[in-house]
Amino acid sequence: MSNQFVVIDPLERIDLLKSLASEVRVRILELLHREGPRNVNEVAEKLGLPQSTISANIQVLVDVGLITTKSQKARKGSQKICYTTFSELLIAFNDRDRAQHKGAIEVAMPLGLYTRCEVTAPCGLCSKDGVIGLLDVPDTFLEPDRMRAGLLWFTRGFVEYQFPNNATLAKAKVEALELQLELSSEVPGTSKNWPSDITVAINGQDIDTWTAPADYGDKRGKFTPDWWKLAGSQYGDLTTWRVTPEGTFRGGRKVSNCALSNLGLDEHRSIRVRIGVKADARHPGGVNIFGSGFGNHSKDIVMRLLTE
Asked: Total structural domains in the chain?
C-alpha cells in the first residue's frame, strides 16, 4: 500500500479522471490499498470477476499511472504483482490566466528557437506546411528555417533554449519556476509501448528524468496537419514541471531534490532549458517535442516565473 498522494490538474489529466469512471477499477484500487499488493488471479477471486475483465481494467490503471506492476517468479512461470501508486488523489483547478496577473511572468518559446543542439538520427523538423530541410540529417537542425518548426524529434542528444530571466528586470523574487511542454518518445513509425528517458535540465542542473511511455500514433493529433502521415508521431503528453524551494515536482508529485536555490536564478540574466536523451539512458527511446500547429495542444514551450 502506498502512502503517497498526488495533486492533479484535471484538464491535464483527463485520462486519469476517465480511468476512475468505472466501478470495477475503483474497486481494484480500493482492494490493493486495503490489502496490499496482489496478483491478477487474487484480485479476480477477491472481486468475483473474470480474470480477463480484471486484466483489462488493471492495464487501464497502469496506463495512467495509478497502478504499477512487477513480474515475480511463480511455481509455473511468472506472475504479475499489482501495486497502488498513490493512496490519495487531490484535484486542483489551476488559474490558467495567472500569467496575466501580478505575480507571474510567462514566456512562450517557439519550438525552433533553440540556441544549442547536438542530436543524432533518426531526427527531423517539421513546420505546419511541411518538412524542414532533410530528414535524418543532424545538420538540418542548424537551418535558419528551423524557427518555423512545430515538431522536432531526435534519438540522442539535446536541444537547449535560452529564456530571458525577466524576474531580474522586474527586481522580483522568484517563488517557483514552471515549465510546460508536450512531448513523447520517438521510434521510427509509432509504438504504444516505447519508453524513453527524457532528461530536463535548467541552468545546467538536471531537474528530472521522465520516462515517456509511448510514441503515440493511434489517432491523429488534434492540431497535427493533414499532410503529416498518420504513421508518424501524432501527439504527446502535456507535461508540467514545477521547481520550488522544496524540490522539483511533475504532475504534483515530487520527482527530485533539485530546488530553486540550485538554479542560481539571481546570478543569471537568462535561464537555459535543455531537453534531451542521454547516451547512457536506461531507456534510450528518443524524443518528440510538439509545438505550435502540432499535437493535441498546439503550444510553444512555456516557462512561468511565479513571484512574490
From this structure: 2
* pTM for this entry: 0.70
| Helix, strand, coil distribution of the chain in percent, nearest 5 | 20, 40, 40
The Cα-based distances of 226 to 186, 210, 230 in angstroms read: 20, 30, 8
Q: Check whether residue 74 and residue 199 sit in a common domain.
A: no
Q: pLDDT of the chain along its 308 residues, tens only?
A: 444 556 677 777 888 889 999 999 999 999 998 999 999 999 999 999 999 999 999 999 988 888 988 888 877 777 889 998 877 777 766 554 444 445 788 999 999 999 999 999 999 999 999 999 999 999 999 999 999 999 999 999 999 999 999 888 788 899 999 999 999 999 988 999 999 999 999 999 999 999 999 999 999 999 999 999 878 899 999 999 999 999 999 988 899 999 999 999 998 889 999 999 999 999 999 999 999 999 999 999 999 999 87
The C-alpha cell at 163 is 529564456
**What's the CA gap between 55 and 61, in Å, rounded?**
10
| Three-state DSSP string of 165-180 | CHHHHCCCCEEEEEEE
> Do 85 and 119 belong together in one domain?
no
